[in-house]
Structure formats: C-alpha cells, structure tokens
Amino acid sequence: MYGHPQAPKSPQSPASGGLIALRVLFAALPLLSCGFLAWAPLLRLAIVTRRTLDWVLFGLAFLAGGALFAYAAATGEEEGSTLEAFVGIGTITVLAAGSVTYYLVAEIRHFERRRVALEQAPPPYRPLGHGYGADGAAVTVPSPLGPPNPYTSTPPPEPPVKPPVAPRIEQVRAELDELSDLLRKNAPEGEDRR
Fold it and tell me: Mean pLDDT, consecutive 10-residue segments, the chain of 194 residues?
C-alpha cells in the first residue's frame, strides 16, 4: 500500500527448482522401470495440460505397458526366440524413450506458453485507495471502473473567487483609519509620524 507499486509475481516460474525436480523424477520413472511405467509422465502431462491428446496418449501408454507386463508374466519361464527378444526390447525402448521425449517437450512448451501469456496480460487493477508516495505526499490510486461515460460532460472549471470579506474586518479597518487620522492631528508640528 505504501511506496512504489511492484510488479505482480508469477504463480510459478517455469525454471523453478520444484518443477525441474518433478521433470527429472517423471523422466526417470520409465527408464528405471524398463518401460513399464512409461504412462506415469504422460499422466502428469495430461493432468497439467488438460488436453484430450495427452489423455489419449496416456491411455495408449498404459495399455502398452500393461500388455508388455502381461506378456512378460506369461512367458517368464519359457525360452523365447531372438526375434521375440528384439521385438520386446524394441517396444520397451520405444515406449520409454517416446514417452519421456514427448513429456519433456510438451510440458516445457506448456509452461513457456503460460509464461508468455502472463507477461502479455494487462497488469491487474489496483483497488481505489489512498496511500503515501515516496515524498510523503498523499496519493490517490484511480479506480478501475472502466472508460468514462461519453454521454456525461464534466462542467468547465470555475474561475477562482476571492473569499468574501467579513463585515467585522471592514469595521476594524475603518476604526484603524480613524485612529491613524486622529494621531496625525494630535502630533506636534515638527514630527512626522508614519
């Protein structure tokens, strides 16, 4: 309220430490779980962005991870062919790398768009109030009531008016003039009193 107005602070800076830690955590989940948790970063992305495409990709990654887990559980003891191993490892790699890459690119773009939108937004209005400026003078903050009404006109400024002279002051002036005349008449002739 007092002093110079400050710029509003953004709700969360795109490069804050907490956001970077979340990105690292969600990027590491698919890699550390051999692709079985590839849906986790896509779930976070879908919650943050609330876009239909992100929800669809989350669902597909969840189904693919579930299918890989079910296949590995069903054929755990059996010796598979080399082709099955290449297809399985390739699918896990594509699923993990694809989900991490898409997650990081989409989330960084989302927060960058949000930051730009906050910077381009008009500054918030300050409520009508009174305060004191840096020099101690009273400052009134204008109200954000919108544009002035074009159908109403402001009256022209009135010329400054001399305050009316009170009758008591006129009476005192008249008495002082009489007293000064009386003193001049009673003064000796050689002295000049002013």
Answer: 50 68 90 87 92 93 88 77 82 90 91 84 59 58 60 72 73 88 81 54
Q: Beta partners for 140? A: 130
Give the pTM: 0.53
Calculate helix-pair angle for 39-49, 52-74, nearest 10 degrees. 160
| Tokens read off for 72 | 């590995």
> For residues 104 and 94, what is the distance between their CA atoms, to the nearest angstrom?
15
Asked if residue 33 lies in contact with residue 25, where contact means CB atoms within 8 angstroms, the answer is no
User: Virtual CA dihedral for 42, 47, 53, 55, nearest 10 degrees?
Assistant: 70
Query: Are the C-beta atoms of residues 89 and 34 closer than 8 Å to each other?
Result: no
Which tokens in the block code for residue 75?
A: 């054929």
